[in-house]
Amino acid sequence: MITRVDHIGIACRDLAASIAFYQRTYGFEVFHQEVNEQQGVREAMLRINGTDDGGATYLQLLEPIREDSPIAKFLESHGEGVHHVAFGTADVRAETAAVTETGVRALYPEPRHGTFGSQINFLHPKDCQGILTELVQSPVHE
Known about the structure:
Blueprint: E1 2-11, H1 15-26, E2 29-36, E3 41-51, E4 54-64, H2 70-78, E5 81-89, H3 92-100, E6 112-113, E7 119-123, E8 133-137
């Protein structure tokens, strides 16, 4: 069961400049930063609303750390901008199974490591009206 919009992922070429833009323009503050080697990105989560112990919605700024990462390839093809929409769920495995039963393809056979130690999977954009969709099970926020 989808419980909320968790975050909107935004591909950027310069993480520090993007953070500064969202801080200056909207007053968003950085909640968390990390490097995800598996996904090939340096990322920052900026809280939009809610509280950090539940119900918050975030912007996830993603800067590639290597040229073969999905974000680097996205930037090459599309430039900076919205990369994906992420929905929160209490059980990413069960939600992935339920969604794939409707004919939507998951990108990974098993969940992968995401921000904050979350478990994630992506759904194919061709099956989701052109939108790369992420399912997120966050131990911090569920």
